[in-house]
Amino acid sequence: MTSLNFDECRYLKQIPDVSCLTHLENLSFRWCPKLSSLHYSVGFLEKLKILDAEGCSKLKSFPPIKLTSLEQLKLRYCHRLENFPEVLGNMENVRELELKETPIKKFPLSFQNLTRLQKLHLCLSVGVMKNGCDGVPLSSICMMPELVDIAANEWKGELFCEANEGVEKVSSIFYTNVQYLQLRCCNLTDDFFPTLLPWFANMKNLDLSGNNFTIIPECIKEFHFLTRLNLNFCERLQEIKGVPPNLKYFSAIDCISLTSSCRSMLLNQVLILHIG
C-alpha cells in the first residue's frame, strides 16, 4: 500500500499504528473534526512523501518526525496545534511550509533540520495566539541557507525568539539569508528595528504594513540590498529618519501620522513613491 486516506472521517479520534506500512507514500487525514492524537509511528515512515493533517481542529500535538522522503507537510487550519514537531535528522525535500490559522507557539531548535526549506508562510486570524510564546528560533533560520521568503500576517505573539541576545551578537557572519520578509499586522513596535531587523541583512523586499511603530530609524540606511519597502496602513508612523541607498519602490498609503517634513524629504528621493 502506498496511499492511505482518512479524509473527513467525522468520528476518527486517533491515527493508529502504521509502522507495518513501510511503502506508504501518501498519508492524509484532512478535516477530521474529532482527531486528537497520532501514533508515534506516523513520524517514522521512510518513504512517506505527503503528510496532510489540514483542518484537524482538535489536534493538539504532533509526534516527532524522521521522514527523510517527505516533500509536503500540510498543517493549515489546525486550530489547537501549539508546538511544531521535533525534526529528528535532516529532511531535505520539504521546500515550502504554510501554517495558515495554526497557532504554533513553539518551534524547536530542530526546526533547522528542514535544511532546504525555501518558504515559510504563517497566518493567524483565529484569535487564539497569546503573547509570550517562544516563536521561530532566529539561530535556526540562520542555519537554513535556502530559506529566502518569510511571510506572516496577523501574528500576535512573539514571532521570532533569541532577539534578546542583543544586536551586538549579530555580525557579518551571523544573519539570515532571507530576502523577502513580510510581517503584516504583527503588532510590531519601535523595538523591532534595533532587536530584530539586523538579523535580516540580505533583505531585498520588506513589507511592514499595518504595524504600530512610530519611527523608521536611521539604521535602515545600512540595508544596501533593500529595493522595496512597504509601510502601508502604519497609522502611528510619524517619522522616517533614513532611506536605504538602493531603494527603488516605497509605499506609505494611509500613514496618517506622518509629518509634513518627512513627506517632503521622501518626495526629494529618487524612487517610486506611493504616499497617502
Description:
- The protein is mainly β and 276 residues long.
- It has a single domain, classed as Leucine-rich repeat, LRR (right-handed beta-alpha superhelix).
- 6% of the residues lie in helices and 21% in strands.
- The protein has 3 helices and 18 strands.
- It has an 8-stranded parallel sheet, with helices on one face.
- The longest helix is centred in the C-terminal third of the chain and has 8 residues, at 260-267.
- The model is unreliable at 164-168 (pLDDT under 50).
Observed structural traits:
6% helix; eight-stranded parallel beta sheet; 276 residues; mainly beta; 21% strand; Leucine-rich repeat, LRR (right-handed beta-alpha superhelix)
Which value, in Å, is the CA radius of gyration? 21 Å
Number of helices: 3
> Could you give the order of strands across the largest sheet?
7-8-10-12-13-15-17-18
| Pattern of helices and strands | EEEEEEEEEHEEEHEEEEEHE
Produce the secondary structure layout.
Blueprint: E1 3-5, E2 14-15, E3 26-28, E4 37-38, E5 50-52, E6 72-74, E7 96-100, E8 119-123, E9 136-137, H1 138-142, E10 149-153, E11 160-161, E12 180-184, H2 192-195, E13 205-207, E14 215-216, E15 228-230, E16 239-240, E17 249-252, H3 260-267, E18 272-275
